[in-house]
Amino acid sequence: MAVCPCGSGKEYEKCCGIFIKNGIPAPTAEKLMRARYSAYALGEIDYVMATHVVEKGEEESSRQATENWSKESEWQGLEILKTTKGGESDTTGTVEFKAHYMVDRARHTHHELSRFEKKDGLWIFTEGQEINRPVIRDEPKVGRNDPCPCGSGKKYKKCCGK
User: Fold this and answer.
1) DSSP secondary-structure letter at 155?
2) How far, in Å, are 141, 146, 147, 148, 156 from residue 159 at the CA level?
3) How far is CA 147 from the centre of its chain?
4) CA–CA separation, 101 and 108 (whole Å)
5) How far apart are CA 73 and CA 75, in angstroms?
6) What pLDDT is recorded for position 134?
7) From start to end of 120-162, where are the E strands?
8) What residues form DSSP beta bridges with 97?
9) Contact 48, 40 (CB under 8 A)
10) How far is CA 72 from CA 17, 31, 32, 69, 103, in A?
């Protein structure tokens, strides 16, 4: 009796396994999200690919990248942070989550807001927006004691940095 990777605490066969192995459609966006995480964790790439929209011409490269990420990662857990709509009677929904995993003994967290649509009665992942990506500066950071970039001649902390 294996515990489901999605974090529900239930037995896999009675949780995400009914969607992944038995082909039963997930009734809500959140359940699809949980099943997709479990599919990543277990290397069930066919399920991941079948439950999301792929741009034409990107099918093979998308599948290969997905399979590589799934296999190279040691999946540590899933946190569902917020669900908006996505119920059985809805046609759209969002799920904000954090997926924890390790690659080469380094711990990572993938924080995403996923969008789902119900098409022909089936929930499908349409797009994801990664949250809290590191800020990459185009210019060097202005220190508190540096001259203010506005040209006033004052220190940054006494001018625009107030």
Assistant:
1) B
2) 16, 11, 9, 7, 5
3) 41
4) 5
5) 6
6) 65
7) 122-130
8) 80, 112
9) yes
10) 22, 24, 23, 5, 6
Q: Give the side-chain half-sphere CA count within 13 A for 143.
A: 2
Report helix, strand or coil for 70. helix
Which ranges constitute the DSSP H helices of 43-98? 45-50, 59-72
Give the global pTM: 0.79
H/E segment holding residue 142: none
- Token code pair at residue 9: 């605490």
Model pLDDT for residues 16-63, shown as the tens digit of each residue = 999 999 999 999 999 999 999 999 999 999 999 999 987 766 666 688
| Maximum alpha-carbon separation in the chain | 70
Evaluated on CA atoms 71, 72, 77, 83, the torsion sign reads negative
- Phi/psi of residue 12, nearest 5 degrees: -50, -45
Cβ-Cβ contacts under 8 Å for 60 (sequence gap 6 or more): none
CA–CA distance, 79 with 98 (Å, rounded to integer):
5
pLDDT for res 127: 93
Interval 73-88: pLDDT, tens? 999 999 999 999 999 9
CA 132 to chain centre: 12
Q: Which residues is 119 bridged to in the sheet?
A: 122
67, 107, 106, 84: which is closest to 30 by C-alpha? 84
